[in-house]
Design a protein that fits this description.
Layout lengths: L2 E5 L3 H13 L3 E5 L2 H10 L4 E4 L8 H8 L1
Parallel strand pairs: 1-2, 1-3
Helix pairs in contact: 2-3
């Protein structure tokens, strides 16, 4: 099963994405700020990260650079 991390500070958007992706058979986790997203990415293995650019804490570009 593919694992996806959805990162966005808009909780309603994340909720909708989680619902849709889980119905398609994906295992989905969520983070609502850059610092939590970075911790999640370092702690767990994800096949895909859907990452918003404008996040509290660290912005999406900083998170992406640190993950890479």
């Amino acid at each position: 099963m593919s694992r996806i991390l959805v990162v966005d500070d808009e909780k309603a958007l994340v909720k909708g994405l989680i619902y849709t992706l889980e119905n398609e058979g994906y295992e989905v986790a969520a983070a609502y700020d850059g610092i939590t997203a970075l911790k999640e990415a370092k702690t767990n293995r994800y096949d895909l990260i859907i990452l918003d650019l404008m996040l509290p804490g660290l912005d999406g570009l900083q998170v992406c650079q640190k993950i890479r």
